[in-house]
């Protein structure tokens, strides 16, 4: 665990919080896969009711974020990203655990997510208890035009 790590939850399209998330976004995602969102995509989701953005910080440094959208008693992990300089130190796991905790507190029963089949994050999701649901062949198109399968995972939060 990183000393001094704080997690802040943002539920509105706050300009500063979105700028912090965009800073991580621009460094975290490999451009080859075109997975990073634009600011307007992020703002579009943040204005929807039931969306929350959790940002991990140490002092002024922004380490990573998780973005979750909920509808009734289900939610979806839309994005999870940690700045490359801060990887491998438990920030991703902490953000995911906190997102699950927030969901549970809100009475949400399950969390779904979709991830490129070659993404290392799958190991994290499985370690956290997510179960594989199905594969969507060729769901993502990389910069070079190559297609990548998406895997969907789900975890029951409240049985
Ligand atoms: C996925 C991501 C959020 C993980 O963040 P992180 O802070 O490095 O993760 P943690 O340090 O909490 O590691 C948690 C677990 O994830 C797995 N993991 C994370 N990065 C890994 C890597 N590069 N290779 C293999 N396993 C990895 C490990 O199982 C690790 O558990 P361990 O420490 O017990 O081995 C980060 O790599 C990232 O931002 N990736 C780019 C964005 C992305 O693809 N997000 C997911 C789809 S939205």
Overview of the molecule:
There is one protein chain. By secondary structure, the chain is α+β, with helices and mostly antiparallel strands. It has a domain at 5-112: Aminopeptidase, CATH 3.40.630.30. The protein has 4 helices and 7 strands; from the N terminus they run βααβββαβαββ. Strands 1-2-3-4-5-7-6 form a 7-stranded mixed β-sheet, sandwiched between helices. The chain is globular and about 40 Å long. The relative contact order is 0.16. The mean pLDDT is 96. The protein binds coenzyme A.
Give me the secondary-structure topology.
Layout: E1 5-10, H1 15-28, H2 39-46, E2 51-58, E3 61-71, E4 74-82, H3 91-105, E5 110-116, H4 121-127, E6 131-141, E7 147-156
Parallel strand pairs: 4-5
Antiparallel strand pairs: 1-2, 2-3, 3-4, 5-7, 6-7
Bound molecules: coenzyme A.
- Ligand catalogue: coenzyme A
Cα-atom radius of gyration = 15 Å
Reading the helices and strands in chain order gives: EHHEEEHEHEE
Spatial ordering of strands, largest sheet: 1-2-3-4-5-7-6
**What is the CATH class of the domain at 5-112?**
Alpha Beta
- Helix share bin: 25-40%
Largest beta-sheet characterization: 7 strands, mixed
Envelope shape? globular
**Total number of helices:** 4
* Beta-strand percent range: 35-45%
The overall pLDDT average reads: 96
The CATH topology assignment of the domain at 5-112 is Aminopeptidase
User: Gap between N and C termini, in Å?
Assistant: 29 Å
CATH superfamily of the domain at 5-112: Gcn5-related N-acetyltransferase (GNAT)
State the low-pLDDT regions, or none.
none
In CATH terms, what is the architecture of the domain at 5-112? 3-Layer(aba) Sandwich
Query: Which class of secondary structure composition applies to the elements?
Result: alpha+beta
Record field, number of beta strands: 7
EC number: 2.3.1.267
Enzyme class: transferase
Family: Belongs to the acetyltransferase family. RimI subfamily.
Protein name: Ribosomal-protein-alanine N-acetyltransferase
